[in-house]
Amino acid sequence: MKCRKCGGQAAIELRRHNAAFCVDDFVEFFRNQVREAIRKHRMFGRDERVLVAVSGGKDSLALWDVLIEDGYQTTGLHLDLGIFDYSVESRAKCEAFAAARGVPLLVSSVADEVGGPVPVIKQVTRRPPCSGCGLSKRYLMNREALQHGFPVVATGHNLDDEAATLFGSVLHWQMEALPRQSPALPSTHPKLVRRVKPLYRLSERETAAYAFLRRIDYIVEECPFAVGATSIAHKGILDRLEDVSPGAKHNFLFGFLEKARPAFERAEAVPLNECARCGQVTTGTLCAFCKLADQVKRAR
Ligand code: Q46
Ligand code: ZN
Predict the structure, then answer these.
(1) Which of 48, 57, 87, 188 could disulfide-pair with 44, CB 3.0 to 4.6 Å?
(2) Which ligand is the nearest neighbour of the Cα of 191?
């Protein structure tokens, strides 16, 4: 197989693009996809400081690598979830990545902020671990960005993640989730920072290849709570679809973003208040994070 760009020996084949690339041209292709995402959705400019949420996995570290190489002003944010050895190793990968490139990394611990790590939150709430974990991550990302003066948070969600989330929302016709499914969420309140997903055009396989070719040392194991999560089941279904019909995931997600999403935009905006306890944005009186922290502290 030959590289589409230079005609040299190809290192990776991308069926959905009907193309193959050598190492250098694949890296360039990957970065161009990120550049296109940033440009198309006006995610951030070179004069803005970007907070990059890094889990220690391939996607978020690949994203950080691209942004550093392209000269953006980035700081990493790692949220230590307190999930046994998985979290110890994830944090170590982020710290090593940041130290090797001389870039700043902020670390915040869910156990310190909520009153207990994710496994304890799971026990106390008797809900799936991802529910308290996801809530805490979204809250802490936004709060850390505000506290440190970042106008925007970038996450490593890829095409597979986004297609699986969309699939889940469509299966249950989650009318509040559908308009929020976007590569770039604007700030709708002075205390809500922008959230962007510069990898949304790239598949999981492509980010894995990029991380490998760039010799990024990332945590290969998945979170132990990911097993049995519905999002993983949805990914499996979409993988099977993609196998028989290359490009299916892309068409599903991009078709929604380009054609269907506007139809789900809500006419009337939900009124936003500031939490009576912490001052962060909520639709109620007390925000979901403060309620969760109360519940965990009471139980301990
Ligand atoms: S870290 Fe947290 Fe994920 Fe683990 S508990 Fe679920 S949400 S699976 S991305
Ligand atoms: Zn609050």
Answers:
(1) 48
(2) 2
Is there an atom of ligand 1 within 6 Å of 53 CB? no
Looking at every residue in the chain, the average pLDDT score rounds to 96
Closest residue by CA, ligand 1 atom 3:
130
The domain containing residue 214 runs over which residues?
Answer: 31-268
166 lines ligand 1 (CB under 6 A): no
Q: What pTM value is reported for the model?
A: 0.96
Residue 268 has pLDDT above 70, yes or no: no
Residue 289: inside a domain, yes or no?
no
Per residue, what are the HEC states of the chain? CECCCCCCECCEEEHHHCEEECHHHHHHHHHHHHHHHHHHCCCCCCCCEEEEECCCCHHHHHHHHHHHHCCCEEEEEEEECCCHHHHHHHHHHHHHHHHHHCCCEEEEEHHHHHCCCHHHHHHHHCCCHHHHHHHHHHHHHHHHHHHCCCCEEECCCCHHHHHHHHHHHHHCCCCCHHHHCCCEECCCCCCCCEEECCCCCCCHHHHHHHHHHCCCCCCCCCCCCCCCCHHHHHHHHHHHHHHHCCCHHHHHHHHHHHHHHHHHCCCCCCCCEECCCCCCEECCCCCHHHHHHHHHHHHC
- The answer to whether residue 281 sits within a structural domain is no
Q: Is 225 in the pocket of ligand 1 (CB under 6 A)?
A: yes
Q: What is the pLDDT of residue 300?
A: 82
pLDDT at 267 over 80: no
Alpha carbon of 204 to ligand 1 centroid (Å): 17
Number of domains, the chain: 1
- 6 is a domain residue: no
Q: What is the mean pLDDT of residues 264-284?
A: 88
CATH code of the domain in which 95 resides: 3.40.50.620
